[in-house]
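Objective 1.3, modelling of assemblies. Example input:
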Amino acid sequence: MRSIDARVGTLTASVMMLVLLFSGAAMAAKAEGTPSEDPPLILLCCIGPFLLISLAIAAWGIFVAIFYPVFFLYGVIFSGRNLDKRMNEIVLRERASIEHFGKDPLSTLKGANIVGGVRESGLVYSSIVYSPSHWQLLIAWINQLFGGKIDVIHRVISVGRAEAMQRLREQAQAAGWEDVLNVRIDTAEMTPASKPKGPKAVEVFAYGTGVKYG
Amino acid sequence: MQHIRDGIMVVNTETIAGKIISQNLGVVGGSTVRAKHVGKDIGAFFKNIGGGELKAYTELLEESRTEAIARMVADASARGANAIVNVRFATSAVTAGASELFAYGTAVKVE
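Predicted structure (tokens):
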């Protein structure tokens, strides 16, 4: 929030400063004979940008105040359902690609088990940034007061991970690889610009080496 | 060919199956820091409230990864390598809304 405010503010301020400077210069050139008009103009130049920044921040605040509840409610109603829907879809896609390869192409082996030769090899990678909804974070916060399992967040992260792995399979399929060796799955925090200190989104990144036997 | 960039093979295994490493040319790496514009950040802010995939940031990471790999490959080709083995990736959250990506590996000559 704060960083967006800052960026919007800086942008508006710089644009308005330029506009005011130009118009000020034009007006000054026009009304050179009447020095009594100069003080209000300078005052406007000094106060104007600050006024505009505060106006912009206020407008953003009103905008958020109106739309935040709408999106939050959307999260309350749909975030769990969307998660289930996505998981089911991933399972179906996974089944399709396992059918295509004849087995699960991903493995963490390093290729020592390959008996025949390898014709070609190359890097495959895929990623996703996934975030829990604010409703799920609220549930998680209540859960963590009591301790124990926090299933809501676990489900969100599993879906993200499953999606990244499925995308890796699809990448391998698109590039024509027969197998993917040495698969690694990294999880990193991706901080959305809107929340420098608040809840974070998770980035899942999967990569491996695709091979073609020959 | 997507997997052979500028005549350099990039893999994350320690060897390239079917080839022999003849010369080790040292560690090569490439990194980049990127961010999306404010409009996308605002979109992601609202998407974040409802939960789910933040497409703008997935895209951002994809772009930065491609750029980091391109820089790593440029580094390797400057050393006269024809392959990079054992590639690894590291991500760090330098600042909100931006991503730092670092790709590194060993530049080698294979036969």
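The longest helix of chain B spans residues 55-78.
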